[in-house]
Amino acid sequence: MELIRKRLWIWFLLLGIVGFLYVWLAIPREPEIEKLWHLYVKLASYGCILGCIAFFPNKLKYGHLLVYLPFLVFLGYLIPRVSFFGVTGNVIVTNFESVGEWYTLLYLLVVQMINFSVSFAYRMGGGTPGRTIKISLLATITLFSGFLDLAFYTINPVEIPEGGLIYAHHIIVFLGHAPSYDQTIWFALCHIPLFLLVLFAPFDKWFERISRRVQDRHRRKTDAMATIANRG
Hints:
The protein is mainly α and 232 residues long. Helix content is 73%, strand content 0%. The longest helix has 29 residues, at 203-231.
């Protein structure tokens, strides 16, 4: 996996930066998913950042210290911004215009930063690309499964709105309406096969096979060029 290990993470990093900037600057910060392609762009950006983490070189002498960097993001931006809404009361009830900003910070950044931080820590601790991807994907599947939405109405002293789980916007995209609590349970259970598929998928073997083919193709091309040069 030498070729993949050395080059691929850089391309993923560049694409991830471009994707993140587009999501952060160009897509409206709203809880609702107004356009389905907005979700696709966000997922593509997530995939590129995850690819960068999974193939990031983890044999650096002081590479483990890079795991400290997410703390700067949390303590220098995310936590102060999210705390602002709670401390000032500037949330849904008092200022509806701020909902999009709060929702984006909490669910698009904080949750994913936890995901990426854990995955990155595993990778820098010696984890393989395949297992690193598994950690992140399993967390993302759990997030999109509706587990979080069920937990909110289960552990908190709040009643389910008459219209169903009206804040489960990613589920609404699939069903076309706000799901009931029971529908959300079934929606979550339907993610179990996908969860198991990712859990047992031999990602590292696939990456090794792809890398071997790329290297063999590159070697044959190099040999062919050398043969032509020698004949000349």
